[in-house]
Amino acid sequence: YKDGQLVMESDFVSGNSARGYDTPEGTYSITYKQRNATLTGPNAGGGSYSSKVSFWMPFNGGIGFHDASWRSKFGGTIYQTSGSHGCVNLPPASAATLYDLLYKGIPVICTP
Asked: CA-to-CA distance for 56 and 34, rounded, in angstroms?
């Protein structure tokens, strides 16, 4: 929203609740924005992941908004069993739009 008007909405996939990777509730702010980043971290049960993204917008440490070109579907209940490691996965076109709209310090509110 900007000045009380909706400027963008999108389906997304948030943290995988079945594996304990829920996207944390709370109020945050965008820390910075980065193009062409590689996100890395541990997987449950061992091993690690490495994902290249075109648009990275963190708001809570290693948790943020980013494109997820490896997903074919977004929205609904996907997050319950096939969600992210806590990030908000967006369709590539939506991530590009959001990247242009956001700036460092803009508030992010995560609710259930």
From this structure: 5
